[in-house]
Amino acid sequence: MISLTDNGALKVREFLSAQAAVAETAGLRVGVRGGGCSGFQYALAFDEERDGDTVFEDKGIRLLVDNASLPYVRGSVIDFVDGLQGAGFKVENPNVVAACGCGSSFRVAEEQEVSAV
After folding, report:
1. How many Å apart are CA 78 and CA 100, to the nearest integer?
2. What is the pLDDT of residues 11-60, one digit of tens each?
3. DSSP for residue 26
4. Radius of gyration (Cα) for the chain, nearest Å?
């Protein structure tokens, strides 16, 4: 399961409503990709559902996760924060064992499996 905070859901709804043509079939894609100083980065984007996606729904928002990313983001909570370092989505991920100082990349315990992403 992946979930959104109230503030995260509000911001996703705002972004999706600005793109009314796809708002009913689109969702927030949550994934990982290689990169960053700790090994992996989050890939968040507004997208349509694809074959093989796992779809979660929370607070009326569709969360789309590709099968390769699912083990590494399962249990995450997505928030939207607006602070001194800027505004953006923040992922609280229980699978992370280390993260870089700026918070843009992370490492998981089973890193050898994630390298295929």
Report:
1. 18
2. 999 988 887 656 567 899 999 988 766 677 889 999 999 999 999 999 99
3. E
4. 14
